Every structure is written in C-alpha cells, then in structure tokens.
Amino acid sequence: MSKKVIKAALLGLGTVGTGVYKVLKNQEEEMEQKIGASVAVKKILVRNLKKAAAKIPEPELLTNSWQEILEDESIEIVIEVMGGIHPAKEYITQALCAGKHVVTANKDLVASFGGELLDCAAEHHCDFLFEASVAGGIPIIRPLKQCLAGNHISEVVGIVNGTTNFILTKMTQEHMEFADALALATRLGYAEADPTADIQGYDAGRKVAIMASIAFNSRVTFEDVATEGITHISSKDIRYAKELGCVIKLLGVAKNTGDGIEVKVQPMLVPEGHPLASVNDSFNAVFVHGDAVDDAMFYGRGAGELPTASAIVGDVFDIVRNILFGCTGRISCTCYKALPIKKQEETESRFFLRLHVDDKPGVLAGIASVLGNYRVSIAQMIQKHREEDFAEIVVVTSKVREGNFHDAMLIIEGMEAVHKITSVIRVYGEQE
C-alpha cells in the first residue's frame, strides 16, 4: 500500500515553531504506525528568510508569502505559532474558509475570539484545536472538552503562568524581594524582556477565560476576568503567610455558581496542605472539581519549546486521524449556555489584611468595629511588635462579599490611627 502523507504548513519559526519542527522530525519513523499516516511540513511562513534558514536543515521549505500557503490545495493543516491577534486571526479565518484545519497555541486569540473561530471551523467542517494555548505541555483542553464531559464541573483553579510561579517560589524559598526574583527570572530566560503580561496576571487571565468557557459550556472572554498581578507582594507577606500555614501563589480561579460564573486571576494565600501549594518553580498545575470525577489535578511543564510543541503535535495527530476516518469537525464549540458573569464586587472571598497602626489602646477595637459594620467577620488577628512609632497588625477575614470588604477598607484607610494599609491579599479555600 502506498504511504499516506498529510501535508501541513507552519506559520512562524520562533521558539515554539522550531520546537514543532523538531518534534515532527523526531516522530517520523513511528508516525505511520501511531496515527495511520505521516505528516510532512510543506511550507514554513517566516518574516526573515535568511535568519530562518539558519534554524533548519531544509531552507527550501521557507516562504514569506501567506498566499502561497493559502492557495496550495495539498496543504490540509495549518499550524499557527506566530502569536498576537493580527495577522494571525485573519490567516486562521482564511485557512478555515479554504477548508484547511488549524492548530494554534495562540492564547490571546483564543481567549478573545475563540467562539468566532470555532463557529467558522464548524461552518466549513474543519477542526480548530488549541490544546497548547493553556498550560503548555499539560493536557487540559482535551480532558475538559472530552474526558470529563460526563461531569458538571463547578471549579477550575490553577497555576498557569510559570514566570510568576518561579518568582514567588524564589521569594518563598530564598527570601528574595520581588524585584530581585524578577531580575533572576529574566536572566534565566523565564521572564520576557517586557514581563508585563506575566507579572500583571494578563497571561494567566487569558488561559483562565479559555478553560472556563470549556468547563462551564458558556463563553468567557479575557475581558470578563478580574486580573491582579504580583508586583505588590513582599517577602514579609510571604513570611506572614507561612505563619498562617499558607504559601502565596498567583491563582487563576473559575467557579460556576448558582447565580453566575466567577473568573479571576489574583495572588492568594493557599493552605500548605492543598496540592497546588507544592507546585514550584516554572511548573504549572490545574485542579478541576466535577460532580462525578470529584477532584483531578493536571501537573507539568507549562511552557517552553518542546512541552508546548508536544501539545501542538498532539492536536495535529488528532486531526490526521479525523481526516483518515472522514470525521473532521466532529467537536466544535461546546458553549451552548449563556451564563452570566458575576461582577467582582458581588463575589465572595476571604482576605489577608496587613496594616500599620498607632500602638495605643482602642485602635484594634476601632478597626474591628468598622469591619463589623460592613459584615466583615474576623477569623484571625495577629499583632506584631512595634516598628518605629506604630504597630503592625494582620487580619484574616471569614468569607465576605467583596463589595462590603472594599467599602470597609475605604473607611479604615481614612482612620487617623491607621498609617497605611500595607497588603490586601485573598485567601483561597473555605477553611477558617
């Protein structure tokens, strides 16, 4: 029998694109036995032909013409690893309209326009897969969409940004301040030259939007996610967290409640006994709770050339199988609900609050009175030794409506005895 060859085009030859090329080459000998056909990269779209030619042994595959790929009917799969919204969105849309299947790692695009692209794929009976858009090499999109489809999922929570997890790990284990840990992450290549998307929570926010959409069968976009970064976290906050039996992690949390979806990315105190508390360095993990499966956790490398390429090639292989059996487009958009997104002030959280106050009688009682007036219950309170002319106190609240808590903070901030509200950090979990 003649060997079946499925031809693909690669859009981009950066870190991830090079990884995809390597993984496909590494799989060549076993590919036909594994999936029933081989995958051949016919064209690679790049901006700079000369620069790209130094990266691969087959420079004849390179092109700087998108039209050359789009108009080539022999190319059945387009692998987009360019990043950014434009022109990736246009290229993917045109590819789907031309009947080509698409694999992407583009979280920015999927988080904002995933629904539109999935609809386009369904209209043209094409596959549009994006496993690599969340948590790199960790399989989470396919498990949520297929393996756990027999569940009503109530919560997805995870550490989905390796840069911030590395920084917080160094702050915890080596007592670094944020700026020093960021500088180390930059030197080691964990942080980009411009780390804003990571340290401000935007990268994780896009990933949480994607996971929430799939988990709850209702469209969630990046704009729906309340995001907060880690730039204000200090080594002192981390020491207090340890005293309370917790570690601080940047968590992405998506909950399907009775009155709407909650989606947020924020630094949180995580109890040391929770599985996510021990996820360190650049590793990622996603924790899922479903009514049938109960709890499941997915853990591994969340980024990098080969882990991300692993997820992309897995999607490519899935499409090849679908092509061979004539069942492409079988799983399209699963957002058949239109659940409301809860406003941040209507959600409930527990809070860690650190303040500098006058060290004199009545101050603690005054603060407790304000909190009580806004229905903020105190679960724990710690008063530390004097620092100059003030005392430092730490308050951990019970679960409270966020709007009530922030109203109380406005009053406390204006109190004469309060010098400064130093830290406000959420606490993950139900435990008091």
From TrEMBL:
InterPro entries: ACT-like_dom_sf, ACT_dom, Asp/hSer_DH_NAD-bd, HDH, HDH_cat, HDH_CS, NAD(P)-bd_dom_sf. This is Homoserine dehydrogenase. NADP(+) binds at residues 11-18. It catalyses: L-homoserine + NADP(+) = L-aspartate 4-semialdehyde + NADPH + H(+). Belongs to the homoserine dehydrogenase family. Its EC number is 1.1.1.3. Its cofactor is a metal cation. PANTHER family: HOMOSERINE DEHYDROGENASE (PTHR43331:SF1). L-homoserine binds at residue 192. Keywords: Amino-acid biosynthesis, Methionine biosynthesis, NADP, Oxidoreductase, Sodium, Threonine biosynthesis. One of its GO terms (biological process) is methionine biosynthetic process. PROSITE patterns: ACT, HOMOSER_DHGENASE. It is an enzyme of class 1 (oxidoreductase). The active site is at 207 (proton donor). It holds the Pfam family NAD_binding_3. Pathway: Amino-acid biosynthesis; L-methionine biosynthesis via de novo pathway; L-homoserine from L-aspartate: step 3/3; Amino-acid biosynthesis; L-threonine biosynthesis; L-threonine from L-aspartate: step 3/5. The lineage of its organism: Bacteria, Bacillati, Bacillota, Clostridia, Lachnospirales. Residues 352-426 form the ACT domain. The keyword Nucleotidyltransferase does not apply. NADPH binds at residue 107. GO terms for molecular function: homoserine dehydrogenase activity; NADP binding.
